[in-house]
Amino acid sequence: MSSPDANAQTRPSQPQLEAASGLESQRSPGQRSGSANRPSWWLTRFIILRLLGFVYLIAFLVAANQIVPLVGDNGLMPARLFLDRVAAHFGSRAQGFLQLPSLFWMNLSDGLLVVMAWAGAALSALVVLGYANAILLALLWALYMSFVHVGQDWYSYGWEIQLLETGFLGIFLCPLLDGRSFPRRPPPTVVFWLFRWLAFRIMFGAGLIKLRGDACWRDLTCLYYHYETQPLPNPLSRTLHFMPHWFHKFGVLWNHFVELVVPWLAFAPGRLRHIAGALLVSFQGILILSGNLSFLNWLTIVPALACFDDSLLGRILPKRLAERARRAAETAQSGRVDGAVAVGLAALVALLSIAPVANLFSPRQIMNTSFNRLHLVNTYGAFGSVGRERHEIVFEGTDEPTLTERTRWLEYEFKGKPGDPRRRPRLIAPYQYRLDWQIWFAAMSSPDQYPWTLHLVWKLLHNDAGTLSLLANNPFPQQPPRYIRAVLYRYQFAPTDNPTGAWWKRTRLGLWLPPFSAEDPALQAFLIANGWLTPDGAGQPRGRANLGVLE
Q: Residue 31 above 50 pLDDT?
């Protein structure tokens, strides 16, 4: 963040202006001045902020479309109950706020959730369009943290805290008030070093967690399974899955090289840094093509862009944009406060990096964890273990009053996850269907670990409009089903040349949840004990129940 204070300003020298504008890189070697090797970052700031704004926009659109049926007053995991429990645990709402800062401690109506989500989307769109200052970026950061801290399971992914850390650094790329794409203040060089430090921790942490985790990363076989068992495959995933084994082994070796070696080059000078940036960005591009990993890969590109300075970007981006950067550099003005803020930020990040660095080199490394309540400097990682089989939960309903072996069950389809074997996997990312992701995790576990699935059953038994908005279909549009159950299947990609045209083949493994009706007393008791159902119109009960109540 740069200060708008106009006092004690200094004008850069002509060589500095030429280096900042990228003109030096266009001269022949004999024409370059002694400062030509100093990189400038006008165009780098421009593209980082645009992409950061795009990721924020997607994240807030996801919230606007899904937050109410997930955590609203009538949602699957109401945030109001969650905040009440947090306040009770820490002794007061004030203490709860200090532990989980969120604007929603003041008001948590469904209307406010939606308004805040759309407000975040609108502010993000401004950044995408080229308007960004420190106040605007700080608002986006505070808004998104507010959602993360009430989002519970739905916002438990590593990219949530990664967006908060990236967004926090983005605040300091901008002047306090000047929102122009090329403002009067020059880009603070220190912040780009901090972005590269973030990229290093993301990539190196992911590489280490793989080497210390699943043995398939060491014997180079993880990609035999990954494309099929990843959370939400896309249309290209099946083709990649059936590639020869040498292709998969090379992919694992390339993964290790990019995650464990290339990040160190992000701190190298000039061309080596550019090469590192190109490898990091292209690696994320490959991941984007191979599966639906939400906005994670797009977000990871943001700090990797700090490897590129204007000497490179000036030759890649449109000439008109490079000319605007040149003109901005000619009139740039630095203030003493700018340097002090940058040094203070670097000192803060260095102090908060102690715990993440210790974690990186710990044999008990953990991933995707915050060490402070504001998620300013975190530890990251992905796919430390890779499943060998893909299990899917298929929810089914029937309107028959009596269950028999001949009962006809109709399946609920989800918007992203596999269901009907004939349905082609969708291209979804950078968008995310949060319910689909959580069901992918639930399929690897049991209902005891995912009690909200019983609340989902209850919602389906009542044709709850909010819950149905998260699904792709409603097999019972006229009246709610009498029973709902969940069946566990093993899914495998069908060969690309199979005569049926199916994308998947599946094998039934058994029931994940037995049939439930809305009149089931055990189901009602469980929902009441968890605060998801009000008994006889009374107030909301407290406490949580164990699924043993259903036994």
A: no
Burial environment of residue 348 by CB neighbours within 10 A (0 to 12, 13 to 18, 19 or more): middle
Decide: helix, strand or coil at residue 211. helix
The C-alpha R_g of the chain, in whole angstroms, comes to 26
Nearest to 286 by CA among 251, 312, 257, 313: 251
pTM for the whole thing?
0.91
Residues written for the chain: 551
| Per-residue pLDDT reduced to its tens digit, 101-158 | 999 999 999 999 999 999 999 999 999 999 999 999 999 999 999 999 999 999 999 9
- Residue 199 CA to residue 193 CA, distance in Å, equals 10
What letter would DSSP give residue 389?
S
| 8 Å CB contact between 336 and 8 | yes
The token pair at 535 is: 């008994």
As a whole number of angstroms, the distance between CA 249 and CA 416 comes to: 28
The dihedrals phi and psi of 497, each to the nearest 5 degrees, come to -100, 20
Distance CA 545, CA 528 (A): 9
Using CA atoms, how far residue 484 sits from 417, 462, 518, in Å, is 19, 10, 9
